[in-house]
Specification:
Blueprint lengths: L3 E5 L6 H6 L7 E5 L2 E5 L5 H7 L9 E4 L4 H4 L2 H8 L9 E5 H4 L11 H4 L4 E5 L4 E4 L2 E7 L8 E7 L3 E5 L18 E8 L9 E2 H11 L4 E4 L3 H6 L1 H12 L3 E3 L4 E5 L3 E4 L8 E3 L2
């Protein structure tokens, strides 16, 4: 089995955390063999990719779920890296319609010049599917202030499926698209008892987890209220309530899906959590 490693290059989200950088906003790098995907490259994605030894020139796809700066800000420079500093037309850009074309008064946020650098441009809308080097990617419905926002379900041969909610409100049926995934990554802006319109709180995450029943879960994309409450305590609550192993991501954390799921922090001395999932 070729393992999948997910690098949590940034675990912050929302305006206040983005501006202060209390948590990084660099998004996710997924590495499966020689295949590299970057999801939602917000501010800092370029810097923290390079700091982690994950050159943008290794990328095969840049995926952007919606047109807010904490999700798209570094996309153009990553595209330049993916195209060998604009010397080779290659790679996939998969993004919401708002990012690529603009919707109402939102976007676009990636120039037509940069869209023209890549080999394929895919508009992500609910139920749109594509493949990148044998990795299946399906866009799922989300409900956010950018009406074109999508969640993602990614399928890796032999490894299994992972889900990524992006920013969304809870709505009936949201968990169905993520049902049975091996790992569900939930963008959880707020703690228990602190709802925020068109975003997930821990109360909303609980409902999604109960519907989807993933084999394990990671919380990320934290706003200030969540950081003040303590994401680790919120993850412990969710695990106790659902019985699903749940971890609060930290900047630099790596999750490796192989025969088991290993969650390793950024500190070398830190013992990883190993989950039979």
């Amino acid at each position: 089995m070729e393992p999948l490693t997910i690098w949590f290059l940034g675990t912050g989200g929302g305006r206040f955390v983005t501006v202060t950088q209390r948590r990084r906003t660099a998004g996710l790098r997924l590495v499966w063999g020689d295949v590299h995907l970057h999801i939602d490259p917000g501010p800092g994605a370029l810097i923290f990719s390079n700091w982690s030894g994950l050159s943008p020139q290794k990328l095969d796809a840049v995926v952007v779920t919606h047109c807010h700066p904490d999700h798209y800000c570094d996309a153009e420079v990553l595209i330049e890296g993916m195209t060998r500093v604009t010397t080779k037309r290659r790679g996939v850009l998969a993004a919401s319609r708002s990012v690529l074309q603009g919707v109402d008064d939102i976007g676009p946020s990636i120039s037509s010049y940069h869209q023209g650098l890549v080999e394929r441009v895919i508009v992500l809308e609910p139920d749109v599917s594509l493949e990148v080097e044998d990795v299946g990617i399906k866009a799922l419905r989300a409900l956010h202030s950018d009406p074109a926002t999508v969640g993602l379900r990614l399928d890796f041969p032999d490894v299994g499926s992972i889900g990524y909610t992006s920013d969304t409100a809870y709505f009936e049926g949201v968990g169905e698209g993520y049902r049975g995934v091996r790992l569900l990554i939930l963008c959880t802006m707020r703690p228990r008892g602190a709802p925020l319109p068109l975003h997930l709180s821990v109360d909303d995450a609980l409902r999604i987890m109960e519907e989807a029943r993933p084999r394990c879960a990671v919380l990320t994309h934290f706003g200030m209220r969540m950081l003040n409450a303590g994401p680790e305590a919120e993850a412990e609550y969710l695990e106790a309530e659902t019985g699903i192993p749940t971890v609060a991501a930290r900047d630099g954390m790596r999750v490796t899906l192989g025969e088991v799921v290993e969650m390793r922090g950024s500190r070398k001395r830190e013992e990883p959590r190993v989950i039979e999932a």
